[in-house]
Each structure stands twice: as structure tokens, then as C-alpha cells.
Design a protein that fits this description.
Chain A has 130 residues and is of the alpha+beta class. Chain A contains five helices and six strands, in the order αββααβαβββα. In chain A, helix 1 crosses helix 3. In chain B, helix 10 runs parallel beside helix 13 and helix 14 crosses helix 15. With 510 residues, chain B is an alpha/beta fold. Classes of the chains: A alpha+beta (130), B alpha/beta (510). Chains A and B meet through helix 3, strand 5 and strand 6 of A and strand 1 of B.
């Protein structure tokens, strides 16, 4: 979808309105989406499309995805969560996921930061070095 | 054996593997050699990005939610959603003497099939130019071997002299002649064991040129034996606009290595008009706002930051130099276009080539009136200054008088003599391509012209006279030429000797 500058600007303004104490307020986001849909403007789809992208990026910035091959024990989970909170602040939500492709080890992604301690990553690095 | 196994087990148990932090993003948009990547929050400007599959990108735009990356290499394998990673490294190219005699691309990879380049040193492609305190004034000459330039528009080491003119007026030929001249001087100094001579290494940067043109340049330089002192950095017309945009900066980095290590280098940018066009293309694809002629607003800064890297640095900093000869191609002789005026204002002078002169047979077709060297006269040899000091003025006067003489009115004897002298000087400055003339020979020839030895020679025979006189000097008076070269000045004794030689020659020449 072609998103023009005006639609982008309006989406950014709406996104800023959804921030409370530098954090995204979910209720405000829902409210904004409902209002824009109800307004039924010609550029509503473009505004919502850019708004969705901004929300997605913000959510990704504050979501830590922890991938592993086996279920991570509760004490290790708690240690990981505490470490992530220390580094990225209390707003970080953690999601534990199962990913057999890693072979072994853990991969953590928060926004664009990746901590990859998996065997798969090491094998890839080894392959690149040849 | 049991102990060994236990030792290994203990070491495995004690081994800790740390997962390094990486910054990743995903390709959101891809096209025309440019990618928009979401994420990459740690990306730096001009940082190399690992796009996977051995493809490298270069960060040019940092935006709020994404980065704009130009892709170096084959981007057809990449697709939307692919992962890209920061590398923490700025774009770098190999530098050093091992590049001499080689033809390389924008990343310093060989294109000549002569095997890998053995260089452990790399330089960043984008580098801040030497500051005021590091610089010193230009005072050493670059002998181009082209008489019209060495006599009237002298170039010094560390200078930036623009070569400007329409298509097919001999812009590249001047640069190739200069490179050949440097190779001959370097070789002569090596043979003579002259340790006081500072060799001048050359870098020829081909930007958006036809592959056939680059191949022709290489062939000419190889034939002239100039390749061992030359690096050719090429991004041909078939390369992506991103590569064409980066190639002069890569060449400048290679030249800077010589400068930083107390050596002298000369770099030819052939040509910056095509470079500006490539940059315009990259900027438009990156959706940067366009200005005059659709060029981005920073097209001046693009060329100023490139040409400012040419400098002569002080003795404390190695005493090296990087001389730049940028080329600009004009359209229908229009020097007031956007890019030509920009580069004219950045450089320390320009050599303007005229199509009309070219077709009149004046080659090199240098327009004396419009060409100027702002700092080179300080670097000119004293002997050349002594004989050629008045030359530019005399030629300008000749042009003016010749224009009046076209009306067919009667001329007084003095005016007629000035016109006759001017015609002969014009003939003397005609020069065959790829045959640079040593400066001592130039001094002797111009001295002969200034002292009336050519006045009696009919204009159509002036070149024959000059050629025979040069042969006469080179074969029978080698010592005289060597003295001029060594002393750098024309003493009364040398002038007297030159007079004797010229008298002897004119008596025998028919």
C-alpha cells in the first residue's frame, strides 16, 4: 500500500497520543483504531497501516523472545527474566518458545538485539569462516 | 588414557560459552540496489551490513524506524524479510604498494586475473580530510610532460586541478600523458639511483566508463611501461550506481596511504560528472529530497569532501602529498552548469579544453584564456618560470590581436611581429599524444622561441623545427640538459651555452 507523507505524519501523531509515561497504552491504541475506522476517511487504511507498523516496532522493542530446544526450567526462566529486566527495563515482556532448529542452546531476541548461544548459530559461523 | 579423558571432561565442564550480542534487522523493501531495513537500531552511518550470502551493504540513511542501505554486489539473491546484521566496521579497502600495477574494483578486489592482492593494511573509504595544521603549501611540481601545461598552467604536488571540456576533447589523454610522464621520471630516477627524487605514484579511477575505454587505458599504460607505478580502480558503466558512487572514495583511500607514509601520489577521477549522476540515482532511490537538476542538496559536499582529501602534508606528518586531477565533462561547452561550477569552485584551478581548438588541430586543445592554476606557479621550476613567465600574457595578447587582424586592416610591424610570434608559440604547444616531453627539453625549446630562433621558421615547419631541435639536444647536448635538470635555474653561463647550441642548430637546420 502506498502511504503518503500526510498519512504517515497523522499516524505518528496518533502513535504519540498512545504513549503514557513513554510506554504504549493498549487501551488508547484500541480506542485510536476504533475511532479511525469509524471516521471512514479516504486515507484511513494508509494511516492504520503505518500506525500498525509503529505499534509492531514498539511491541518488538519491548518483547523478549527466548527460544530453546527444550523447556527451560523455572529457575533459569526467572534468572533470564531478571537479567532482561535489568538490561531493558521493567516494561519488557518475555515469551518462551520452542524451536528445534537451534539444535541446542538458547536464542534471545529483544527488538533488533540478538543473543544467540545456539549450536545452529555456531555452525553457521563456522560455515562462514571456511 | 583414563586421566586424559578425565582432563578433557573437566575442561568441558569448566568451559563457558558467551553468546555475543548482535544487532539484526529484516529487509522491508528492496529494489534498484537499495534496501530499507527495519531494526538495526545500532547501525552507524557508512557501516558495512552483512546481508547474508556474502553480500555486503552500506548504511547511507538512518531514519527513525529503519535504515537505508546500498547493496554492494549481486542483490538478486536477496528477498524481503531476509535477515541483515551490523558488522561494526566502516567500509574499508586494502591499500599499499601491493596494489601498484593492479586493476581493482571498488572493494579493492582484483579485476585483472593476476591473483589475490597481498595487503594487510586497510583504510576506510570515507575519511576526514587532513586539517589546516597538518597541511603545508604546495611547492613541488608535478611534471605532466605536456608543454602547454608545465609552462602556463603548472600543477604542484598536493594541488587539485580540474580538467574540464566537452566530450572527445582530450581530457583523459591529458591524464594518461601525465601518468606516463610520472612513470618515465620514476624509472629514470631509479636507473640513475637518484635518491633525492620523490617518485609520484598514480591512481586512475574510472567512474561509469565503458569497459572498452578502461581496457584501452590499461593497454596504453602497459605499452608505455607505466603500470608498475599505477593503480586502476574501476567501476564501469555496467556496475551499480552504488559502486560508481563509492569508487572515487576508494581510490582516494588508496592515495591517502601513500600520502600518510611520506610518499607522493596523483589521483585521476575520470569523471566526476558521471559520479554526480550515480549519486543522484542513489539519492533518488533512497527517497532523499532532490534539488536543482534533481541532484540532492549535498552534491557540493559530495565533491568537496572528496577533493579536500588531496593535500600536501607537513614534514611532521610525513611530508607526503596527494594531487587530484578531477575530470568534468561539459555539455556544449557550458561551464556554468550545476556540477561544473561546483567543482570549479572547489579546485585550485582548471584546464579548459575547447572543441573548436581540437578540430583546428591544436592538441592538447587547451584554452589559455580560460585555464588557470591558482597555486601551481609556486611549484614551477625556476628555469621554466624564467623562460615561460611572460608566455601566457603573450598568447592572450596574440589571441586579441589575431581577432582584430581578421578584419584585414593594415598592421604595424610590432603588431605583426606579435601575431607571428603567437602563431609559432601555438605550434610549439601542439604535442603528440602519449609522448611527454622532459622539463629540461621544454625549457630549452621555450628559451629558443623566446629568443627569436623560431621567428624565421615558416609556421607550417615550426613543429618539424621543434622536433629536430629536441633530437639535437637529446643526442648531442645531453650534458646541457642534465645541467638544466640538476640546477633548476638558467644561469648566465647556461644561457650562453644554450645560445651557442641554438646558433649551431639554426645554421645547420634547413
Amino acid at each position: 500500500m502506498k502511504i503518503n507523507k500526510r498519512a504517515k505524519r497523522e499516524a505518528e501523531q496518533l502513535f504519540r497520543l498512545c504513549l503514557v509515561n513513554r510506554g504504549l497504552d493498549e487501551n488508547r491504541v484500541r480506542h485510536v483504531v476504533q475511532r479511525v475506522v469509524a471516521a471512514d476517511r479516504r486515507d484511513s487504511p494508509a494511516i492504520l497501516s503505518h500506525f500498525w507498523r509503529l505499534v509492531k516496532l514498539d511491541v518488538a522493542r519491548h518483547t523478549a523472545t527466548i527460544e530453546s530446544v527444550t523447556v527451560v526450567p523455572a529457575d533459569v526462566q526467572a534468572a533470564i527474566e531478571a537479567g532482561l529486566m535489568r538490561r531493558y527495563g521493567p516494561r519488557v515482556t518475555t515469551i518462551f518458545a520452542y524451536r528445534p532448529a537451534l539444535i541446542a542452546g538458547v536464542r534471545i531476541q529483544v527488538g533488533s538485539d540478538v543473543y544467540d548461544g545456539s549450536v545452529q548459530a555456531r555452525l553457521t559461523a563456522l560455515q562462514k569462516s571456511f | 588414557m583414563g586421566n586424559l579423558l578425565m582432563e578433557i571432561e573437566a575442561q568441558i565442564a569448566g568451559a563457558r560459552t558467551a553468546a555475543a550480542r548482535q544487532n539484526v534487522g529484516s529487509i522491508r523493501e528492496l529494489g534498484d540496489g537499495v534496501a530499507k531495513i527495519e531494526g538495526l537500531t545500532d547501525a552507524m552511518l557508512n557501516e558495512m551490513i552483512d546481508m547474508g550470502d556474502g553480500v555486503t551493504g552500506l548504511v547511507l540513511n538512518l531514519e527513525e524506524t529503519e535504515v537505508g542501505v546500498i547493496i554492494l554486489g549481486d542483490y538478486t539473491q536477496l528477498k524481503e524479510g531476509d535477515e541483515a546484521r551490523t558488522t561494526g566496521k566502516l567500509l574499508q579497502v586494502p591499500v599499499g604498494k601491493s596494489l601498484l600495477g593492479r586493476v581493482v574494483n571498488v572493494l579493492g578486489q582484483p579485476l585483472d586475473g593476476k591473483g589475490p592482492i597481498k595487503s594487510d593494511i586497510t583504510y576506510p573509504v570515507e575519511k576526514i580530510a587532513p586539517g589546516i595544521m597538518r597541511r603545508r603549501s604546495v611547492d613541488q611540481p608535478v611534471q605532466t610532460g605536456i608543454m602547454a601545461i608545465d609552462a602556463m598552467i603548472p600543477i604542484g604536488r598536493g594541488q587539485r586541478e580540474l580538467i574540464i571540456g566537452d566530450r572527445a576533447t582530450g581530457k583523459t589523454a591529458i591524464c594518461i600523458d601525465t601518468i606516463i610522464s610520472q612513470a618515465e621520471l620514476n624509472k629514470a630516477a631509479e636507473v640513475a639511483g637518484d635518491s633525492s627524487y620523490r617518485p609520484l605514484y598514480c591512481i586512475y579511477v574510472a567512474i561509469g566508463q565503458k569497459q572498452s575505454s578502461v581496457a584501452r587505458v590499461i593497454a596504453v599504460l602497459e605499452e608505455a611501461g607505466a603500470m608498475p607505478y599505477t593503480i586502476i580502480v574501476s567501476s564501469a558503466a555496467s556496475d551499480s550506481a552504488a559502486n560508481q558512487y563509492l569508487v572515487p572514495f576508494a581510490g582516494a583511500a588508496m592515495g591517502e596511504w601513500f600520502m600518510d607514509n611520506g610518499m607522493d601520489a596523483l589521483i585521476v577521477y575520470d569523471d566526476l560528472s558521471k559520479h554526480a549522476v550515480a549519486y543522484r540515482q542513489v539519492s533518488l532511490v533512497l527517497k532523499r529530497p532532490s534539488g536543482r537538476e534533481a541532484y540532492p542538496g549535498d552534491v557540493f559536499y559530495l565533491h568537496s569532501r572528496l577533493l579536500e582529501r588531496a593535500a600536501r602534508v607537513g614534514e611532521k606528518y610525513g611530508n607526503g602529498s596527494l594531487t587530484a586531477l578531477p575530470i568534468i565533462e561539459t555539455q556544449a561547452g557550458d561551464v556554468s552548469a550545476y556540477v561544473p561550477t561546483n567543482v570549479i569552485s572547489i579546485t585550485d584551478g582548471q584546464i579548459y579544453l575547447e572543441t573548436d581548438l581540437f578540430y583546428q588541430g591544436v592538441r592538447p586543445a587547451i584554452s589559455v584564456g580560460l585555464s588557470v592554476s591558482r597555486v601551481g606557479s609556486a611549484a614551477q621550476l625556476k628555469a621554466m618560470k624564467q623562460v615561460a613567465g611572460q608566455l601566457k600574457g603573450e598568447l592572450a595578447q596574440f589571441r586579441e590581436l589575431a581577432a582584430f587582424a581578421q578584419f584585414g586592416s593594415d598592421l604595424d610591424a610590432k603588431t605583426q611581429a606579435q601575431i607571428d610570434r603567437g602563431k609559432r608559440i601555438m605550434e610549439i604547444f601542439k604535442q603528440t599524444q602519449y609522448h611527454p616531453i622532459p622539463v629540461e627539453v621544454q625549457v630549452a625549446v621555450i628559451w629558443a622561441v623566446q629568443n627569436g630562433y623560431v621567428d624565421r621558421v615558416p609556421v607550417p615547419r615550426v613543429r618539424a623545427f621543434q622536433s629536430t631541435f629536441m633530437d639535437f639536444l637529446a643526442t648531442r647536448h645531453v650534458e646541457l640538459l642534465a645541467t638544466i635538470k640538476r640546477e633548476h635555474t638558467l644561469s648566465d653561463a647556461l644561457k650562453a651555452e644554450l645560445k651557442t647550441v641554438a646558433d649551431a642548430f639554426t645554421q645547420t637546420w634547413t
